[in-house]
Amino acid sequence: MPQHSTTMLVPLDTLSILAIVDNETDPMSPAPPCVKATGRLGDIALGKGRPVGDERGGGVVKEVAMEQLCCGAHGLSLMITGTCNNIPQTLLFDTGPTDSIWTANAARLASPLHNISLVHLSHWHRDHSGGMLSALHAIASAKASYSSLPASIDLVQPPTPTIVDLHPSRPSYRGFTTPLGIVSLEADPTFSEIEDAGGKVDKNAEAHEVLDSYFLISGEIPRVTPGENGIRAGLRFENGEWVSDELIADERFVVCHVKDKGLVLFTGCSHAGVVNAALHALTLTSNALPLYAIVGGYHLADAEPAHLHSTVQALKALDVKVLIAGHCTGWRAKFEIEKEMPGCLVPSFVGITTML
Ligand SMILES: [Zn+2]
Ligand SMILES: [Zn+2]
């Protein structure tokens, strides 16, 4: 894939974001006017609900099955589709915390998984990598089923195998120090497990464009703001010992350009800081475009009030129009955004498709 040297991002005509995994569920609250969204209770009932006969007195359109609603889980997985001249490209951004939640939610959403050309992992943390192997198996299975359909001039065969874009610096384990000792996370999938599950591993530490320059994946995110310092007491286990690892330097983001709007930044957990990510997205694209939207985890759930306040003020100063905040953002940050930037907040809920 081409290494990034200057802004080559294709201006996308449309962008849709399906939250396969996110922390929260709320299928009732309407989307704010700054975006279009589907996947709420009424959409599910009328779209996928079961038909009902006259035995209930007639006039019943559909029965909604509660099994069709997605479940929230601590993690993130977004299926992102951009189109340019009616040609779509789909990327899976992270895979949530567990195989079971990813598989169950993807099945409930009847996601067209065969369209996924590339899986991007934002960083090596289990709440983003835990569903990776099941996701790859499900994508491979969907592509095999699709490829076996009768040939048609409209049938564009999906690329196989699926590229899995990963930072090369995978720790054996990650963890953190507590007063009672070290807490370890579960191991992330290994490179060989990912290959065995049907993924084609592509290791990248530097910024690079993917999928015909529909998307740009960053390299390491420079830490330039005073308050965004990574995970306090963070550790990694390597070569038989635990060592300090507060920066989570393997974290990357994805950015794309939506025509007539500007940049849309996807950030997994913002250990580098959501403002640092925003500033780097602007730099990587030569400061040629405004930052229109930020999607993902802002990592402010446990932030000190002063840091939370300064972060929201910085986002306000950047004049970001749409803040699709989910995962580790936390309710206090969302409340502050809604107060300081009325009309910009779109809380990210699992099962919802947001269109920009
Ligand atoms: Zn993380
Ligand atoms: Zn996270």
TrEMBL record:
InterPro entries: DHPS-like_MBL-fold (IPR041712), Metallo-beta-lactamase_dom (IPR052926), RibonucZ/Hydroxyglut_hydro (IPR036866). It comes from the Eukaryota. Gene3D superfamilies: Ribonuclease Z/Hydroxyacylglutathione hydrolase-like (3.60.15.10). One of its GO terms (molecular function) is transferase activity. Coiled coil: none annotated. This is Metallo-beta-lactamase superfamily protein. The lineage of its organism: Eukaryota, Fungi, Dikarya, Ascomycota, Pezizomycotina.
